[in-house]
Amino acid sequence: MSRVISRRGLSRGAVSRPFGAYEVLAALPAAATAAADARVVCADLDAEGMVATAGGGGEGGAARLAACARLAPHVAARTGTLEWAPLGASGGVGALRLRLDCDLPPHHEIALWFHEDLLALVGMPFLALRNIRGRDDYACHECGARFESPNPLKVHLFLSCAPYEPAAFWREFAARASPPPASVPAEPDLARLEALATEWGRAQGGHLCVYCGKMYSRKYGLKIHIRTHTGYRPLRCRYCLRAFGDPSNLNKHVRLHAGARGSAGSVGGVATPRACSACGKVVARRRDLERHARTHAPPGR
Q: Who contacts 253 (Cβ-Cβ below 8 Å, separation ≥6)?
């Protein structure tokens, strides 16, 4: 099994150049056929301060880091996140990038997991109570296989109970993260459906949802509500490409990005975002940060 370690130490928040999901798959053969004593890949910063394979690596260097990195067994063990690259990045729409979640001293490992938007897109399974037998005991409800950590079980379910093998995992991941256009609901069709449902909802005294009967005083309110039934989300965050149907939810989300590098506190009586010192997650309110911090506390405290 290959591993990725920091060569000279890397800082939290450092990111790689954009790359495609299929580039990760293409980078696997070199990692899989490398000699046993050469399966450690070193990560460093290139001349422009981007996370890359030590010594360069040329095209596909950042993708090779993702291909060779070990998957984190649980969220607390994650030191790197695979996420969407911002709009306008050289990789184009749908490009990925690797971001470091903590400071890495020299020779410390990058253990990779995925941003929640990517997990949702590829359909990474959630674990239910039936999967959690006890501390360090997780079971597959399909075949009974047992695991000591949650993420390996998720990957096991993702692969339909097949044994974990990097090429099989990344092949499935790339196919789901880069689906052919025919497999994705056509947005023009959803837009036309939204327009029709909005028109059909005209009623005496307001605008009626044809799906659930909820009444709105304004046509615009009905239009946004209909998206909760159709799943139409035409609005995109310019930072991470996350999709939204409601402009107000998008604006709240964008403010988290805009304030992520600012200081926490209050400006003019309005709360500014706060970042978790343990994992970097950004939340809007102090009580949300306090609640989130408890998830990092050791059991019994």
A: 237, 242, 244
